[in-house]
Amino acid sequence: MSSASSVLAPALKSVFALVDKPKSDAAEVVVLKFGSSILRTQADAPAVASEVYGHVRAGRKVVAVVSAFGGHTDRLLADARELGLDHENDLLPGYVALGEEKAAALTAIACDRIGLDAVSLSVKELGIVAEGELEHAHPCGLRGEALHKALAEHQVVVVPGFGALRPDGRVALLGRGGSDLTAVFLAAELGLDRVRLVKDVDGLYDRDPASASGKPLRYRRASWDDARRHGGALVQHDAIDLGQERGVEIEVAALGRADSTVVGEHSAPPGRSIPDAPVRVAIAGCGVVGGGLLARLLPDTRYQVVGVLVRDPKKLRDVAAPADLFTADAQGLLDLKPDLLVEALSEGEAGHALIRAALERGIDVASANKQAISRDPAGLQALAEKHGARLAYSAAVGGGVPMIETLRAARAAGPVAGFEAVLNGTVNFMLDRIGAGADFADALADARVAGFAEEDPSSDLEGRDAAAKVRLLAFEAFGETPADGAITCDVLSAAFKPRAEGGPVRQIGACRLADGKLEASVKLLNDLPDPMFEDLRGERNALRVHGEDGRVWLCKGRGAGRWPTTESVLADVADIIRAKHAELGYH
Q1: CA of 327: how far to CAs of 34, 320, 365, in Å?
Q2: Sheet containing 194-199, strands listed edge to edge, beginning at the edge strand earlier in sequence
Q3: Distance (Å, rounded) from C-alpha 432 to C-alpha 435?
């Protein structure tokens, strides 16, 4: 069993900018398609954003193709029929395609909420050209200027499926299930050899899992003919035909699952699928992050929340949950035998003790508690390995910004010389407000209202929060951490006054290796080491990593707030589950 830095490390590519990197090392692009069985309502958009976030965190840019929300296309058709529009009317496809455009816009908003740099395109902006029947046309070309521009400028491009343009500029439809065809066609036009269709089942089965007797078997690989024979309506046949014609394999997968059926030239005998028993999860903490995790995990049938550790079980929460889930007994929480502990306490010593206790019982841990993990990251990883457990803590640094992943990518490319970072979203938000003329008390109150500042913000203001993150990043960069008390910290208080001259003030956490020793600090600076830091607004964080060979790695995004940090924890949870499935030999 390996530690988080090996088994759970995502692909070591980074879309978060390696300065002066060669064009051959451009970010990988993936095309994902989400149908109405996944996007049943707009309430499902955050789950789709989670799936997208996992790919972005692993260093990929994403083109997300979406269908209309469940039942929306039929409602649009009914609306049109009430006004006399029938299936032969040239105006009908343009109206029906609004369903996909709405879903694309709302999915992009859900991505933005968790800190992804996302944009949505309309059918006309996407520029797929199709010929044939108005409601069952076939793609024949791509006017791709807007798509390529969006991919160059953003991490995520959300596009509507199903709709396309006729050569005369009017909208046509690609037939029922046409979003599959949109995704396969875009993958082909982007030069990809695979597309991933996210469905409500985890692949292609030899019989319908919903109605067949016995235990249906899932294909790991299925030929084009097998997909046509067994796929039913799971994958549009036009999409299968186009995939075969253009040499694009089609992955059929479920939300949050690494395993899939790959449709291509060859078949493999079907076999057992991943057990569908929900993962038993215990949550420690129900504050900004813990409450967000509870809100996301409770309605998700892939998980069973067995308990939530809090100081006062009777306190009213901003997340609706059964009262009997809450407990103040840490050992009692672990006695519930969860498969996974999600640790989001705000106190370092208690969090560290709970993480150790869970790992000693062989319970996997995903933690957002930088104070707990930074005490002894090497010791915690060794403990996890000893007891056959997994430990992940990407959310402990940078909120939704993949700083741990970026540092691992930089270190994999060669020795690291040092780094600088804006690491505390609360302080950056407050410095932004103070720079705009607010006094200290108002800036702190605004940070609390925005959900960035905890009830006790002293760890943020005194630099201890940033110092803990510097220790963790130093461990990832150099394999060791600065000694306790060796990180000098400036304090943000009511006495702080921004200087009239110079640029904006930022709290910069830094560490470098000099003469074999680590030098680390957390300082309030207006003489910034990189213009990128000047442009950060509100709660945004950023990291600059220097390689000994002169290369520089950058990443930035939302570093505080419930939803970006929640998303990072959920990505760690997904990594842990995938690692466990891989160990058990599931495909």
Answers
A1: 38, 15, 19
A2: 118-120, 156-160, 60-66, 28-34, 194-199, 249-254, 260-264, 221-223
A3: 5
Question: CA–CA distance from 445 to each of 90, 279, 280, 450, 454 (Å)?
Answer: 55, 38, 37, 9, 11
Question: What is d(CA 122, CA 124) in angstroms, rounded to the nearest whole number?
Answer: 5
Closest CA to 529 of 418, 420, 427, 398: 420
Tokens of 343: 């640790």
Closest CA to 45 of 134, 121, 118, 150: 118
Note the pLDDT of residue 87.
67
List the one residue out of 120, 113, 72 whose CA is nearest residue 96: 72
Give the pLDDT score at 12.
32
Sign, Cα dihedral of 175, 180, 182, 187? negative
Is-contact 285 346, C-beta < 8 A?
yes
CB of 47 closer than 8 Å to CB of 69? no
Task: Say which amino acid occupies 347.
Answer: E
pLDDT in tens, 258-305: 778 999 999 999 887 765 689 999 999 999 899 999 999 999 988 999
Distance of CA 341 to the CA centre of its chain: 19
> pLDDT tens for residues 22-53?
333 467 999 999 999 999 999 999 999 999 99
- What does the angle CA 247 – CA 251 – CA 253 come to, to the nearest 5 degrees? 170
pLDDT of 375-386, one tens digit each? 999 999 999 999
Per mean pLDDT, which range of 4-18, 70-84, 455-469 is the poorest? Answer: 4-18
Find, among 211, 212, 234, 210, the residue nearest to 222 by Cα.
234
Of the candidates 135, 140, 189, the one whose C-alpha atom is nearest the C-alpha of residue 163 is 135
H or E element in which residue 175 lies: none
Asked if residues 477 and 490 have their Cβ atoms less than 8 Å apart, the reply is no
- 137: tokens are 């046309």
pTM of the full structure: 0.84
CA distances 493 to 216, 273, 436, 502, Å, are 64, 56, 16, 20
- Quick one: which of 409, 339, 262, 293 has its CA closest to 50? 293
Dihedral through CA 495, CA 499, CA 505, CA 509, nearest 10? -70
